[in-house]
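Section 5: illustrative case.
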């Protein structure tokens, strides 16, 4: 019975169809659906915070804020991928940054491929800052409001990566490894997308959600999120297959690890600045 389970487990990615609906040349993939679920989960968590955690934000304000955050996520994620992962290619093909069509063999809808978590995170921070200024909201209070809810939404993005069969891990002999159809070598590999869904998503969410109402941590939750995510992702990157066109960019480190190292340092600075700003505001 055990061997039957592991056989099923190891070949699970090949049994998953990443396409939810296909109409002619148009496809709706589970990856896109996971983005919708992620935004929906984040929205309802934020509404919960307005009702239970003492934030004087109306449902209408949260709805408007979500529009800004969604735009920030998409624009930041896309531009982050272009800048961090394939700038040389997109410098030669700038229209492919924003156009979801291919004209090389007629006219085809191919979607937009390539999103960067780190770019999306920067996009969300920028969107929250601009939204706060527009509505006269204090940035550090807004950051404390958002940070505990974000990781759970992010979990679904990694599940979308798993269903897509992309961003798989390095080769392994572990019995819980999996065969991914997109892997040209056909090796057993770490399901790193699931590791990330658990570590960067569920674990970070559980920690931040449990700390969200601690008075001593006011102004620091965004920094704690950046540090926590950065450390977890840095470690998991050792089990994730590096991007084929980049591989290792700084000694044994991948681009993801370099960005996470900067994220951890930035998180420490953000936590210190936020704490000082809170103290000055209440002095």
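Designed sequence:
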């Amino acid at each position: 019975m055990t061997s039957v389970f592991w056989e099923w487990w190891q070949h699970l990615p090949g049994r998953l169809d990443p396409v939810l609906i296909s109409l002619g040349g148009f496809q709706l993939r589970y990856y896109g659906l996971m983005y919708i679920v992620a935004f929906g989960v984040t929205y309802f968590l934020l509404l919960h915070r307005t009702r239970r955690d003492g934030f004087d934000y109306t449902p209408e304000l949260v709805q408007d804020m979500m529009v800004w955050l969604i735009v920030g996520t998409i624009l930041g994620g896309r531009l982050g991928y272009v800048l961090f992962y394939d700038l040389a290619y997109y410098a030669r093909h700038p229209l492919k940054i924003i156009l979801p069509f291919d004209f090389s063999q007629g006219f085809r809808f191919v979607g937009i491929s390539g999103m960067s978590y780190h770019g999306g995170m920067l996009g969300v921070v920028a969107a929250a800052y601009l939204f706060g200024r527009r509505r006269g909201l204090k940035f550090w209070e807004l950051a404390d409001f958002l940070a505990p809810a974000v990781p759970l939404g992010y979990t679904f993005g990694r599940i979308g990566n798993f269903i897509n069969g992309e961003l798989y891990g390095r080769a392994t002999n572990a019995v819980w490894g999996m065969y991914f159809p997109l892997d040209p070598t056909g090796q057993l590999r770490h399901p790193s997308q699931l590791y990330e869904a658990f570590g960067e998503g569920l674990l970070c969410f559980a920690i931040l959600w449990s700390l969200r109402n601690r008075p001593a941590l006011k102004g620091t939750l965004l920094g704690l999120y950046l540090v926590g995510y950065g450390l977890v992702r840095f470690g998991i990157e050792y089990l994730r297959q590096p991007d084929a066109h980049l591989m290792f960019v700084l000694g044994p480190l991948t681009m993801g690890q370099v960005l996470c190292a900067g994220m951890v340092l930035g998180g420490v600075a953000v936590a210190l600045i936020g704490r000082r700003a809170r103290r000055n505001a209440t002095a």
